[in-house]
Records
---
Amino acid sequence: MSEKVLKEAFVSNLNGTSLTEISLGLSVPPFCVVGRGLLLILYYLQCGQFKCSWQGHLLLDFLLLVVPIVLSCTLLSDILLFVPLCFSALCAITLCILYTQRNNYVRQNFQDIIKVLLKAKLKSNSVPSVTVLRVSINILTAVSILAVDFPLFPRRYAKTESYGTGVMDFGVGGYVFANALVSPEVRRHCGVLQKKGSALTKQIISVWPLAFLGVCRFFSVKAVDYQEHVSEYGVHWNFFFTLAVVRIGASVVLTIFPVHISWIVAVFLAVVYQLTLETTTLKMFILNGSDGTGTREGFLNANREGIFSVFGYLAIYMAGVQVGLYVLNTRTMIRDWVKAIWSLLVTSFTLFLIFHVLQVYIEATSRRMANLPFIVWVVAQCLAFLVTIFLADLVLVFAKHLVTGSTVPCSWNFSSTLDKNKKTDESDFSSSTKDLNQPDLCLLNAINRNQLLFFLLANVMTGLVNILIDTIHSSSSFSLSVLLLYMFCNCLVMYILHVKSITFKFW
């Protein structure tokens, strides 16, 4: 067998893993954010503001935010539970130290501190947790698309063939959901974007980079005879085309229906698509082709997975738009955010219950078709992921409440002093805000500035590594070294662009 055939077989005919393991893996990024934030607050308490070159900040963030994710997907995958347990212990110890050594509300007990905190106001011009979610999914995607070609990456984490739940199956759905959270329709409705001209026309024009990247990927893959898992999207189709079509489709739908009923549109699309799968020959066509033997003759046969799964991804996108409207709604009080987080948690739990019912009475999850169980699972998992990130940020808010003037990049910031009757130097808060808004201090902000470029760079470097290295016969130590170097190079490019305030978005 040729190396191309071996690599294609290496990522084919897989069945995925359990929801529990996927949820454990998704708990790692929020723990990383909390751990990094608590360490910075502890350092501030002991030594003052953390100041060093941007290279130092990059190295710190890479070690605390990226390396644990790479390790949890590779070396530590068989003891994955150990990762969040260790993070929990370290965070609990650090938080206890901050509480006992706090320089704020020293004479008040825990209950009184919480009461004051719930009445505190946060800056409402942005929601850092949304940024963390979007960047985390990008990082997880970047790690997975290369790691899947190495034996070090568990086969159960890779994309499933026809049915099942894999980590990478969630990745594609999560990427669509994350983009919907900050879609132009959401930002326009929340007053972030001003409506100028035709929104639909602007959306169609804005997706040309995705279509262009899809065409470039197709020709480059064919030119170098790169390995392809055809049953993912088809012969000519790829994820860039899916993103472009979903964006345009969502814009068309939202010119017809009000944006605030996006969830109704999502439910309608998902249910009608599933009914079509069940009552027609569409399901068999997607799985086996028009002749039942997996033929790829003709454009529709060749790209049936990519073309028809668009309906499922469009439903996910519309659900993401609805969540974006809810999350980006103006809230200033911490207690209001606690209520919002509780609502998201209840919704996620309800969707997981519905998902299990669908698994039993309808059919198993299929990323290949993007069927109703897949849609419900992705939305439920994304909401659970978002809730854990919100909770992580609340922990950091509590820690900053204990240590006056402390700062954490890409985290909520107080809009004013917490207690007007308490003698606190307000200059501490104003200087904290100034430091917090410096864009050069956080890898999360760096990747967030150029997320599409980060995704493209990861794809290009994945292709180069596969061309230059025999990945499927690489040792564990060599594989891990390549993955860490690959991720560091991606992060370094993003960080340099961020330091120089360069944004690659001119369309």
---
Amino acid sequence: MDREDIDMAERDAQRATEPLVKAAYADGVDAGRQLHYQRNFDEGYRKGFAVGFEHGQQQARRALEDVARRKEAGN
């Protein structure tokens, strides 16, 4: 095999692998993006639930206090 054959084989190999490398890169970017989004969604959901739950408890306390005040005012 002479140098020209080696160069041609290297170019052919590069042309054959280039689409695979691009596809693998795109798959890696997509997988990383999905993982990042999922983690942030999960964290936001937990924090949002905790804040919403606390807000609901405060609203319930206020409602119970209002009921108690009305009963006291009526008695």
---
Amino acid sequence: MSAAFVKAAKQFDALVAALPLSDGGEEAQLKRIAELQAESDVVGQELQKQLEAAGGPLPGICLGGTTNRLRQASYGCIY
């Protein structure tokens, strides 16, 4: 059991070491998350417009549902 624990701890340490370092700390990470969310929202709105222009959701096609609007727009997709 202790050998399994040591192995798991080493794997965890390796995964932590492989994480990309963020310049600026937590504040910079939160800012980047907000920027990515805003970008995702813009993409979701554009996809919503395209779906509406096409006459609604296309049966059997799912765009992944990255935002609530996109999930609502793609209600007809097969999961």
